[in-house]
Amino acid sequence: MTDIRSPLVRAGVLEPGGRWRNWGRSESSRPRVVARAHDVEEVAETIAFARDEGLTVKPIGAGHSFTAIGATDGVQLDISAIDGVLNVDGTLVTLGAGTNLYQLPSLLEPHGLALTNMGDIDRQTIAGATSTGTHGTGAAFGGLATQLRGVTLVTASGEILTVSAEQNPELLPAAVLGLGALGVLVDVTVECVPAFVLSAVEKPEPIGTVLAEWSERIAESDHFEFYVWPHTDTVLTKTNTRLPIDAERNPLGGFQRWFDDDFMANGVYRATLNLGRAIPPVIPPLNRLSVRLTGDRRFTDVSTEVFTTSRTVRFREMEYALPVEVIPEAVERIRRLIDEKGWRISFPIEVRASAPDDLWLSTASGRATGYIAVHRYFREDPTEYFTAIEAIFREYDGRPHWGKMHTRAAEDLAPTYPRFGDFVALRDRLDPDRVFANPYLDRVLGA
Prior knowledge:
The protein is of the alpha+beta class and 447 residues long. It contains 15 helices and 21 strands.
């Protein structure tokens, strides 16, 4: 039980822990203590408290990782109160680490700025998103961490460490995507771009055409992705073109957005998932119906309204980063595997692309990258499906997304990351006593 004499208890920072579950319901834990820090000093005091009590500390964001990266039986550190814009210097914007991505449109709009690229989910905190390697799509664009120009973190010793081009620059490629293993992020500085508009074209196309044209599509489009519906020969393609902020807009109407993105993509889709779970033979015809009822629309709107979508149907996900040129072959192998196994898969397979970068633990480190993500409804056991597909991914030197389900461990992850050993050495230096450890980090980085 937490010592009631602690000044952190009196300040309302510490409270007894309870059961925690992530969004996808794939992981849970029971922290002994929950700390709700409101500033950097309370973060440092929480870390000192944990060390004195012999406990570990894990910062937690929105819980959108499907792995146990945020799980702990020690101190769960909630930094959601450390949010908002802290400073703006031209296109450099410093944000509190607890800022949720969905807050950014209203925070950046007064400054005429936007993130250069985003994924399709905006529930995460910016610290959690960058720390796990969240990314969008676009062969010329990197993940969120590549947009960071500086971070401030509190280390295991309580030191407030600034990492930027001016201070400790050698640590920047590790600190911006650090898995929560190096310290607690308290702020991040993002290189934004002038706000812009996206012209979106979404339409169903034959899978053979899209796979044959994969290299051309990602080279010619600003942002291209597609969704493979199992048990069909059709994919839903999404092509977004960047336009200046003063370009003419043709946004989705309120009713159409609600009908497409809320009613159909969430409400009706949830009902079909439950029906398919109860009666698996109906999944193939339901998938064919979904292809006909979704997509095939054009609209133009501010970037955040196009990049992100509402996702209320819970699922579990595994995503791997592969060399970009092998994507068509890997997709075809997955489709054949589904047919050979006789599985009934209701969720589409998501395929995206990303530019290479030089971040130590980035899944796109040192190579142009394609991403393939597979999903299962959260009420279904994904083990057999994910395990078999992971074996395919490993044949292509695939790298698992740090925040999505996988079975990899440090000994077989190290060879695929050129700077893996450097990251582990930095962890040893900044957290020798493993204050920020948990079983997931012990597995993927070593104890």
